[in-house]
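Provenance and format

Records in this collection were gathered into a single text stream. Each protein contributes a sequence line and a token line. The two records reproduced below are adjacent in the stream.
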Amino acid sequence: MKRVLGVIIFVIVLVVGVIIGTRYFYVVGEGMKAGTLNYVVKKGYVFKTYEGEMILDGFQSKGPNTMQSNEFLFSITDTALAMKLMLSSGNHVLVRYKEYNGSVAWRGYSKFIVDSLVSISKPGSAEYPVK
């Protein structure tokens, strides 16, 4: 009886672990987004994380006769990258990101995590790659 109970508990813990791992730690998408970097800030109550907002190129329609700019809210886990992006506010940037199914407190508020800065350009000038 104890052995059966142990196997049942093990299976339950394993299933819960797989569900949590898939929800919060499995990367479901990767890509690049380009737009004007609005801001990057460090905020949080317990876990201080870097959060940013970018206005994407183009417009998105939310319904008939309405146009709205397309915003991309993201988190940054790398401090050096966050500092580069803070200095690039107002510029046109191209960033790489990873998408998760959910967010965890120590990683940031968003399920989108920016992991690298590909290029920066001033509005109306040519882009240059970031090294």
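Adjacent record:
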Amino acid sequence: MKRRNFIQRLSALSVAAVVSPALIAATNEKEESKKDFLKIAFLSDTHVKPTETAEQGMRRAFRHANNLQPKPAFIINGGDSIMDALQADKAKTQAQWDVWNKVILSENKLPMYHCIGNHDIWGWQSKDESVKQDPLYEKAWVIQEHKMPGRYYSFEKDNWHFIILDSTQENNDGYIARIDEPQYAWLEMELKSVDSQKFICIVSHIPIISFCSVMFSEKNEPNGDFKTSRALLHTDTRRLKLLFSKYPNIKTCLSGHIHLQDEVEYLGIKYFCNGAVSGNWWGGPFQEFAPAYALFKFHHDGNVEREMQEYDKAKNA
């Protein structure tokens, strides 16, 4: 080989070695953007509180979601943003929301849609009767903090229609998983109004249909029955199942609450329970599930895929 040709080929190879990784990354991102799906992140059960462990864990999770390439179109917050407001006084509740807002301001640049979790609700289990007279009592505080249009609402992105439900109702100083009558009437009208060519995703904090709801307790009843409760699974599941059966464009339902993960396909609908950002309330994994969030692909043909993100194990955590 002539010296001039050898030098030319060597130079070309050197340039390729420097440029190709960037070109490959750019090409991959371009190809990804052409794919026929909507990419979203579902972060639930963050349970942040004024401790270093909780605050830094929340930071890592939201930083990880924001650093994904290509970026998700938006985040759905599945509820239980703060550790607990059910029993906390006003000062302790405010302190929790202060941490949440501080981390979101510094770590999140993506649009975010919120769902109300049971622990986001202020005062239901407070022994201070004056709390009930406060304008922020019940769900008013969480709606204000998240700037939500209401406790339940809907929005659209591409050919997908998203419905956010409020699945936690007061029940004898506790709570029960179901939607109330005004919300059910709204849901009926909402489903009727959706273009049949659009696909529907329904979000509830507490699962509507789930297997891991019966796995939450690690022991069975003395007679062998599985333990579950009105607080772990929608008690109006059958009613909602019958309503959903009228709309074949309902393709998936997303939830959190249980801190476990499952995927159940029932009568043509995929139900995903999506673990917890906080894992075992910032004490490591809950049962076998590490702190994590879900990354979804909502395809334009109605198919839905999930990949769990254990954000502390990833390269850019």
